Amino acid sequence: MTGAWPTLIVLVAAGLAIAAVALDTVIAGAPPMPLMPAARDVVVRLLAARAKGPVYDLGAGWGGVAFDLARRRPDLTVVAVERAVLPLVVLWLRRLVTRRRNLTVLWADVHRLDLKFAGGLYAYLNRPAMKRLAARLRHTAPAGIPVVSAGFTLPGWTPERILPVPASLLSPEVFLYRVPGLRDTDAV
Ligand SMILES: C[S@@+](CC[C@H](N)C(=O)[O-])C[C@H]1O[C@@H](n2cnc3c(N)ncnc32)[C@H](O)[C@@H]1O
What we know:
Distance between the termini: 63 Å
Number of strands: 7
CATH class: Alpha Beta
Structural class: alpha/beta
Strand order of the largest sheet: 3-2-1-4-5-7-6
Number of helices: 5
CATH superfamily: Vaccinia Virus protein VP39
Order of helices and strands: HHEHEHEEHEEE
Strand content: 15-25%
Largest sheet: 7 strands, mixed
Helix content: 40-55%
Number of domains: 1
Low-confidence stretches: 183-188
Bound molecules: S-adenosylmethionine
Shape: globular
């Protein structure tokens, strides 16, 4: 019986993890699907070249984009916003292990965030959430800051650039927008 304990513990832990992801998926309306590496590189490159203030990853999932960006731009604050439990635990653990001082993990709903000090935004959510975000960002995010989306557009917004990423099957395009209003003139 003693030898069965480790197996039992692993099975219970795996069961709890699956249940947590399933619950998070129901609440968020989409699984915490990470962006594929090819598209992630494009997103990180776009934001690293343009952001002049704190960048918010709106629904950071397991933190692929947020941690890459924080590593690439140590001078920039990156805020990984998430509300699902298991991704949050992973984000906090990654933050602890990597000691990435310029990355903050924020437990919050992206639709209720105060974004007035944001210098860049990134979102890869689901269609209804992107629609809701598109409507709110117009009035709550600083004019001119870069907004990058993957997998989904921001309905009603006109992209400044559309970058094809054929190697990324689930999100084969990355979109770069600017919050309407005053224009930031740099074009890196
Ligand atoms: C498709 S994943 C994207 C993960 C990551 N940004 C990436 O590109 O790899 C979307 C994430 O957004 C989170 N999410 C969805 N709605 C949210 C909300 N209203 N507030 C905070 N996080 C949310 C989900 O829990 C999920 O982890």
